[in-house]
Amino acid sequence: MKMEEHYKKAIEYVRDNHEWSEACEEYAWECIDKMRCPITMVSDEISNEIRELMDEYGQNNDLPEDWWMELGDEDDVFSNLYN
Fold first, then answer.
1. Structural domain containing residue 67
2. Residue 18, by phi and psi: left (phi above 0), alpha (psi -120 to 50) or beta?
3. How many domains would you assign to the chain?
4. 25, 31, 54, 79: which could form a disulfide with 42 (CB 3.0–4.6 Å)?
5. What global pTM score does this model have?
6. What was the pLDDT predicted at 58?
7. Residue 72 carries which DSSP code?
């Protein structure tokens, strides 16, 4: 499987397994929109959980550590969760 395919599947994995609340997500989107800043500056909860889940997907699929950072960061994952 190509890394791009793993990346898409990992985003699905984050979408299906994240534990942050809908209210937390809505607030994060509001802040991103108003302040034009990355998710890492808006919500440690969301950005850390994205990193953990992407790494977990990688471990489950025998991928190297931080494999997904070549394709995108926490902001890219967050923005692609519902595309």
1. 3-14+21-80
2. beta
3. 1
4. 31
5. 0.93
6. 97
7. -
